[in-house]
Amino acid sequence: MKRVRILALCVVLAACSQPQETTVPAETLSPEQMLGKIRAQSDVGDEVVFQAMPDEAIVDLRQRAQTAEQIGEYAKARDLLDAALAINGSDPEVLQLRAELAIRQKTWSVAETLAQKSFDSGAKLGNLCRRNWLTVHYAQLAQGHALPEQALARHLADCTVLPPARM
């Protein structure tokens, strides 16, 4: 009988106690590791993807920016992407590349804003869509308020639309 009382007392005390507040530490990924995860997104087999006709001037600026980034000339890459955005401020691929460059430069709110703008102006399908959501996720994570894992998984899954099966 004494054991039952002690057990009941423990249950009551446990129910009344305040849980210890724990903070979720920001993931300790470097910007380069974040970019590796973001850029690892590729097309998924037969998924439906929409791509608008590219503007040759923007394609050229985008390619030059990617080359500049690869050799470590981040300021030049930023300037080239900004020049492309001056031509078309809603080009989703350029907005995403600029967001990824902002991740590298640890300008988290800029990265989040640009990735969201890229998503809003894009087709919301394919690897660009997945890169958008991962960029938003890592930018928010670095600011201490990441997307919940279930929400992120849902957004990433929504980016993949497979064509109907043909018989």
Layout of helices and strands:
Elements: H1 2-16, H2 31-39, H3 56-70, H4 74-87, H5 92-104, H6 108-121, H7 126-142, H8 149-158
Helix pairs in contact: 2-7, 3-4, 4-5, 5-6, 5-7, 6-7, 7-8
- Gyration radius over CA: 22 Å
| N-end to C-end Cα span | 71 Å
Tell me the helix content: 55-70%
Q: What is the H level of CATH, i.e. the homologous superfamily?
A: Tetratricopeptide repeat domain
CATH architecture: Alpha Horseshoe
Largest β-sheet summary: none
What is the domain tally? Answer: 1
Number of strands: 0
CATH class: Mainly Alpha
Coarse structural class: mainly alpha
In the CATH hierarchy, the third-tier topology is known as Serine Threonine Protein Phosphatase 5, Tetratricopeptide repeat
User: How many H/I helices?
Assistant: 8
As an assembly, this protein is: single chain
Give the averaged pLDDT, no decimals: 84
Question: Which shape, going by the Cα principal axes?
Answer: globular
- What proportion strand? under 5%
Q: What is the string of helix and strand elements?
A: HHHHHHHH
Q: Which consecutive residue ranges, at least 5 long each, have pLDDT under 50?
A: 3-25
Descriptive notes:
- The protein is mainly alpha-helical and 167 residues long.
- It has a single domain, classed as Alpha Horseshoe (Serine Threonine Protein Phosphatase 5, Tetratricopeptide repeat).
- Helix content is 64%, strand content 0%.
- The chain has eight helices and no strands.
- It has helices at 2-16, 31-39, 56-70, 74-87, 92-104, 108-121, 126-142, 149-158.
- The relative contact order is 0.13.
